Known about the structure:
This protein is of the alpha/beta class. The protein has a single domain, classed as Roll (Dipeptide-binding Protein, domain 3). It is built from eleven helices and six strands. A six-stranded mixed β-sheet has the order 2-6-1-5-3-4, with helices on both faces. Strand 3, helix 6 and strand 4 form a beta-alpha-beta unit.
Amino acid sequence: xxxxxxxxxxxxxxxxxxxxxxxxxxxxxxxxxxxxxxxxxxxxxxxxxxxxxxxxxxxxxxxxxxxxxxxxxxxxxxxxxxxxxxxxxxxxxxxxxxxxxxxxxxxxxxxxxxxxxxxxxxxxxxxxxxxxxxxxxxxxxxxxxxxxxxxxxxxxxxxxxxxxxxxxxxxxxxxxxxxxxxxxxxxxxxxxxxxxxxxxxxxxxxxxxxxxxxxxxxxxxxxxxxxxxxxxxxxxxxxxxxxxxxxxxxxxxxx
Length: 255
């Protein structure tokens, strides 16, 4: 595929993903041309089932993922947190788990999980992604990272996100590679955290329940002061990153 055709393909796929995965661009008084799509892509864990009901096991895998290499496949921004640049609660100081294979081994030892005894771990992704060269390459790198960490991974596909919703916290799902998008106007007023990390979040497909995170997000939503809102959202984001319910991989912001 030529670079030009690839660029066209990626433009098309991102448009489709922005519709399928995300909150669609909201109609309102702001002109459509002022709205730009922003996407976060990540590796997510089913926190309700072994082995990833073990936070140390999730942290070990998070440290085994070469996010910079995956993001570079299509020249995306390396995601250092949940909230992308330009969004309300973006925190340049957010501390996601960095790629460090030695640390991954140490965390795995602390977890007590023996992946060689766990057996096959399904990594689920949207079937549509198999048709896109760069996203196939991302999956190759990701599965290579997971295999190097000692995981036995089998790629599994779901046809759409409604189908994935039905199985996301069942034992058959251990990990998933997907993302959500929004528009820059809306994310300057709200957060991805609310959809991904709150126990009642529309896109919390991780089975994640943390009363402290819920309380921080709820307080942030009702805070009258913008600075307080941002601080509370950022505290919630860091707790989510520490709990490693997902591994932020890349951000894409429409130019």
